[in-house]
Amino acid sequence: EHSKPLQGKNVLITAGPTREPVDPVRYFTNYSSGKMGYAIAKAAVALGANVTLVSGPTALTPPPGVTFLPVESTAEMLEAVLTRYDNQDVVVKAAAVADYKPKRVLSQKMKKKQDEWTVELEKTTDILAELGKRKQHQLLVGFAAETQDVEHYAKDKLERKNLDMIVANNVAQEGSGFSVDTNEIIIYKKDGSKQAFPLLAKEKVAYEILEVAMDLMGR
Ligand code: PMT
Recorded E.C. number(s) (predicted)? Predict the structure, then answer.
């Protein structure tokens, strides 16, 4: 059907930040608002897909029609995504996943005694890399949030994580990236081609991303 090109397709989108606890009252996180991922989820619903939205904590209301799975930590996001991966046709990883987490989570609140407090961090699991390793029939779409050498790092992630396409955004550029309502992206595909877009509303960016994905799916 022409107006619903994603009819019958299962699309899973991750959005928002993850949150890594230090003690019962503190955590590490980042500036992701969830706007980019929620816009993709909304667009995918409008294009007819069965949409699962796995989201870290945000202030947003999930778009109508999605299966909504709220998570907090990277480990919870990993588990939510992996258990549903086999059924998906498309996975879009717009979430800003924490790269590091505290090595130890304190069971009691850290008291304010010393002048300094060192928290040791260790790497989290790279969810996207795991998905790349286990990829079968799925179309895997990653994001790259960069502040320099965007093309170099985006292409490196595309290859290393076994993606079909990667959406690069320069998050140091005004009006682009975290929290704002607009984004300026360049999409790199695994065939080596790239497509650059002007600064657009995240709603519009969402459609552009899905257009490229549908093109790769032959829809
Ligand atoms: O939420 P908004 O405020 O609207 O902002 C949107 C955004 C800037 C967060 C979004 O456009 C974006 O760039 N998302 C990816 C952010 C990110 O974590 O980029 P990265 O270059 O660090 O990671 C590369 C890819 O690996 C991402 O698809 C990320 O989801 C994934 N990843 C990273 C680390 C990890 N442990 N697991 C992952 O799956």
Answer: 4.1.1.36, 6.3.2.5
